[in-house]
């Protein structure tokens, strides 16, 4: 899939290109520092997706999308400000990424793009992802906590909870601790299955039993199994609703 990056900050373009190297199905064919340059490159390359900064000198990314009447690929907005999220989806953006962009969050956006375009990974590409230590729900992991050991499929892990420098994994009746930060664990988990609910928790989407409105625009989910109740922060609630919407 061909991609163009439109962002007035050279460092931001470089960082995004570096992150996109983790996705061999994406080819960055060009980059632009403003929407005027971007228009010309879009007409020339006919990309599948553009990564478009919201705030740029002159015409903003949102204004440009609303006014542009030429060939329009899928749009993934990138910005440091979350107040533009609602407007972005009003103009039918595929996704909205907050800077600094996290690899796991970018992976979610690429997955949406693949679904939208009907793109299927080849076995070669899947193999390359596995070589980068990307774990799927079907992978089995070895866990050792004290004298106890487990060999469990990730699909059985319903909840990951940060405990300082450790993460507590919840599966069946077990709650072992592993020496790993929640951020490090998140980078290795399949974002189509495991969702970062807040600073302390990652939940398995397949274990959600109930969703309720919560304080300050957030949500609370109840998990199947032991009935753990986990708050989804206001910021993450926007992502959660978009991820699970039709």
From TrEMBL:
It comes from the Bacteria. This is Response regulator. The modification 4-aspartylphosphate is found at residue 53. The keyword Protein biosynthesis does not apply. Pfam families: LytTR, Response_reg. Residues 141-246 form the HTH LytTR-type domain. Residues 2-114 form the Response regulatory domain. Keywords: Phosphoprotein. One of its GO terms (molecular function) is DNA binding. InterPro entries: CheY-like_superfamily, LytR-like, LytTR_DNA-bd_dom, Sig_transdc_resp-reg_receiver.
């Amino acid at each position: 899939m061909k991609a163009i990056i439109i962002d007035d900050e050279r460092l931001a373009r470089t960082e995004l290109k570096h992150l996109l190297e983790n996705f061999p199905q994406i080819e960055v064919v060009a980059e632009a520092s403003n929407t005027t340059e971007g228009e010309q490159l879009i007409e020339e390359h006919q990309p599948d997706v553009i990564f478009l900064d919201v705030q740029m000198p002159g015409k903003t990314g949102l204004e440009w999308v609303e006014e542009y009447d030429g060939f329009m690929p899928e749009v993934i907005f990138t910005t440091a400000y979350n107040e533009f999220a609602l407007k972005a989806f009003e103009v039918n953006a595929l996704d909205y990424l907050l800077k600094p962009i996290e690899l796991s969050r970018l992976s979610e956006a690429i997955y949406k793009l693949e679904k939208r375009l009907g793109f299927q990974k080849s076995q070669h590409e899947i193999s390359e992802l596995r070589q980068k230590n990307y774990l799927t729900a079907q992978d089995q992991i070895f866990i050792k906590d004290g004298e106890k050991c487990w060999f469990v499929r990730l699909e059985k892990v319903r909840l990951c909870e940060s405990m300082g420098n450790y993460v507590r994994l919840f599966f069946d009746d077990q709650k072992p601790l592993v020496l790993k930060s929640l951020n490090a664990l998140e980078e290795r988990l399949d974002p189509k299955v495991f969702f970062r609910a807040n600073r302390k928790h990652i939940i398995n989407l397949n274990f959600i039993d109930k969703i309720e409105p919560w304080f300050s625009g957030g949500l609370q989910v109840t998990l199947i199994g032991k009935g753990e109740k986990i708050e989804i922060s206001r910021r993450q609630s926007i992502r959660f609703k978009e991820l699970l919407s039709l």
